[in-house]
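re: ur question from yesterday

yeah so i grabbed the chain u mentioned. its 192 aa long if i counted rite. heres the sequnce exactly as i have it in my notes:
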Amino acid sequence: IPEGLNIDEIAEILAEKKVCTEEQFKAAVNEVSASKYNVSFINELKTQSDGVHYILEGFLFPDTYELYATNDKAGAEQAIKKMLQNMDKKFTPEMRQRAKQLGYSMNDILTLSSIIEMEASVADYSDKQKVSAVFHNRLNSKDYPKLQSNPTRDYPYNTERYDTYKIVGLAPGAYCSSSIDSIKAALYPDET
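ran it thru and got these structure tokens back, copy pasting raw so excuse formatting
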């Protein structure tokens, strides 16, 4: 699962590999429960679901996975479980503490990192930190509170809640699955 993909694009890959159908995966990403997915941030997922298109958008860590080709709902759930567990390992306690220091939730950081991912997907880490600094400056400005990121205009679900030219601050959820560099850049923007 490459960095920068959204839920619909991940669903296409999983369907192509016969892990599950696209519809099964899309349904499963909105069925969040602690009994299915034992990850430390499960309660945050439940509380941040208002206004998001897919509850797990941005929380599925992009990586290489070995999955069974079950072509059913169990296949969707096994894929989600592995990706969430990987995110739980990658988004460390230190990163969670840093998010709190900045005044953000994990969802906020993953939302911001997804914008950084879309803006600077081929850039190196230091360039992503510079992009992050621009967005942090805008988020902290009373005079310029809109992020105005062009890729957010094309978010595939065609909703104004995600268009950073129309909303103030962050969207209700992430736009895609971010690389670890984009997540770190969201937490540690360039200081200049």
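noticed a couple things. Residues 73-90 form the longest helix (18 residues). also The chain has a mean pLDDT of 93.
anyway ttyl
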